[in-house]
Structure formats: C-alpha cells, structure tokens
C-alpha cells in the first residue's frame, strides 16, 4: 500500500503510549514516510492533519479506549473514506474482555466516514493497580520496536487486520462506559498533601483541565478521566487518592526510567512468569 503521509493521533496519560508513538514516528520516518504526530489532548478535531493514512493510538481504561480519545473521534471532520488504523495500548494485552476495547472507537470512526482497515494491540507496563513481574515489564519495552515494525509492515503491505470480539467481551466493553462516572468520582476525591510545593505542574498538565490552584493548593473537579498523570508525575508524590486507593501503584510509574533499564536488557528467546495465568495476555504478546 502506498502511504506517503501518515497522521498519528495519540493520547497518553502516563507516558507509555507517548513512548510507543515516538517509536512509530521514528520508524515511519526511517522509511521515508512523512508523519504528523498529534496529541489529542492538545489539538481540536478540526486541526487534524489530512494524510494518506490516519492512525489512532490510545491507552485503554476499563476495556475501552480512553474517554478523551473516544470523545475526540466522535468530533472528527468527515473522513471521506480515508483509511484508518486503530492501535490500543494496554497493560493486560489482547485477552477477554480487552479484545473488544476498540469496538466503540471503530464505530465512531465509521460514522465519521473513515474506512477502518486495521487494528492491533500494543502492550506496555501496566500503570493501574498491579503490574506483571519486573523482568516482564522491561521485556515489554525491549520488544516494542519489533512489534511496531510488524505493524508498519502489515500496514504497508495492505493487510486488512480486523478482529471479531466475542459478544460477552462486547457487552462488558459497553458497560465499561461506567468508567467515565468512576473517573469523575475518583478525580473529585484526589487531594494534595502538605508536601505540595505549589509548582503548578499538575494544573498545567492535566489533559482534562480538572485541576485548579486555590489558595496555593491544587483542587480537583469532576472532569477527571483517571489517567493518573497528575498522581505519578508529581515530583513530591503529593497527590493522593481519597478513594479507590489500590489503583495507584505504590512505587509510582516512570516509563522513562523503565526504558533506560530496558535498554540494558537483551531480548530473550522466551519469557517465563511465576504468576500463573494472571498475565496471560502479556506472556502471549511477549512470546509471539
Ligand atoms: C483507569 C485505568 C483503567 C485501565 N484499564 C485497563 C484495562 O481495562 N485493561 C488493561 O489491559 N489495562 C488497563 N489499564 C492500563 C493502561 O491501559 C496501560 O497501563 C497503558 O499503558 C497506559 O498508557 P499511558 O501510560 O499512555 O497512559 C488501565 C489504566 C488506567 C489508568
Ligand atoms: S505537581 Fe505536585 S507539587 Fe506541583 S502543584 Fe501539583 S501537587 Fe503540588
Ligand atoms: S485530575 Fe489527574 S488523573 Fe484526573 S484527568 Fe487530570 S491528570 Fe488525569
């Protein structure tokens, strides 16, 4: 398939999708294909660059693409039947019910006049509640360039890769929309402790503009989509959840640090896990 230009529309809460976006950008550029990398949190749908191929790249929250991504796609200008690929990024991989995570996004894109030609899942270290074993997290970063290369090859070869998730997974994804309410309640209950030094970073970087500085202390509104950016990016670790505390990883989440560590790890022939089937999707992805 001849694609001279590609627009990569991405959103990232805690940096892993951004890391994958940079990998895609690098590899398309190396192949002489012009790529426009645009962050959905920073542009409006009417400013999306028109290219030969559109790629959507988004983390999944509660079995569907992030709310910010889905809202953005619903407002895209007419796609005029241009091709689009949907790439999801998850912590758990292509297992039930994640398999249906792209279904709503594909529907919105079709309604906006796009031709969905390809979908796939990238797996990155989970930022939510629990993680696979440390060596597997690093392995996910080690194999990323290879996974991206395969995706680009398949796109350029014109492979039509579309999945048909089971009804049960589709149903669960439909109920996943309740995450919007969950995120709202979670965010309203975030608070900044006295360790806050009023640097303002969280206010500036919240993709939903949900944080305001009031009397020198960040205050959280109802617009949160629980991306966890503010929680993990605060240098003082001053933002804490008032409820659903277990979703925040105790040791934080620093994708740049993990990538530096991963760069020292050679790729292995096969990966093994001591935690049984719990990370089945990660193991399948790593050993494919
Ligand atoms: C609120 C929330 C819900 C999540 N739900 C899922 C999920 O349903 N399935 C999954 O595999 N990963 C889930 N994750 C993990 C993220 O998709 C994963 O860590 C991703 O790499 C985060 O991307 P980012 O760093 O670009 O924000 C969730 C993360 C958050 C914050
Ligand atoms: S990023 Fe942390 S230290 Fe900075 S204003 Fe927000 S809560 Fe305070
Ligand atoms: S308040 Fe924090 S968790 Fe909620 S959307 Fe903003 S940055 Fe993300």
UniProtKB/TrEMBL annotation:
Recorded coiled-coil stretches: none
Residue span(s) of domain 4Fe-4S ferredoxin-type: 187-216
Domain Flavodoxin-like: 6-144
Keywords: Iron, Iron-sulfur, Metal-binding
Any Pfam family hit: Fer4_10
Protein name: Flavodoxin
NCBIfam families documented for this protein: ferrodoxin_EFR1
GO MF, any single term: metal ion binding
């Amino acid at each position: 398939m001849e694609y001279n230009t590609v627009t990569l529309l991405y959103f990232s809460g805690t940096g892993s999708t951004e890391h994958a976006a940079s990998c895609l950008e690098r590899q398309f550029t190396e192949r002489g294909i012009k790529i426009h990398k645009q962050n959905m949190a920073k542009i409006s749908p009417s400013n999306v660059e028109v290219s030969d191929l559109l790629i959507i790249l988004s983390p999944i929250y509660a079995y569907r693409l992030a709310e910010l991504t889905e809202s953005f796609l619903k407002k895209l200008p007419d796609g005029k039947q241009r091709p689009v690929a949907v790439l999801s990024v998850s912590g758990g991989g292509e297992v039930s019910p994640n398999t249906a995570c792209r279904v709503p996004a594909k529907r919105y894109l079709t309604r906006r006049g796009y031709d969905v030609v390809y979908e796939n899942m990238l797996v990155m270290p989970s930022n939510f509640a629990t993680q696979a074993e440390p060596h597997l997290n690093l392995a996910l970063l080690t194999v990323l360039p290879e996974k991206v290369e395969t995706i680009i090859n398949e796109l350029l070869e014109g492979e039509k890769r579309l999945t048909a998730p089971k009804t049960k997974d589709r149903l669960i994804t439909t109920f996943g929309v309740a995450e919007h309410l969950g995120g709202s309640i979670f965010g309203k209950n975030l608070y900044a402790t006295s360790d806050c030094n009023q640097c303002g970073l969280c206010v500036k970087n919240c993709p939903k503009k949900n944080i305001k500085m009031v009397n020198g202390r960040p205050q959280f509104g109802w617009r949160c989509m629980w991306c966890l950016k503010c929680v993990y990016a605060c240098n003082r670790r001053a933002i804490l959840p008032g409820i659903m505390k277990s979703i925040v990883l105790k040791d934080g989440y620093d994708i740049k640090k993990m990538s530096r560590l991963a760069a020292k790890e050679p790729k292995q022939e096969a990966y093994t896990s001591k935690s049984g089937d719990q990370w089945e999707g990660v193991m399948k992805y790593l050993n494919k």
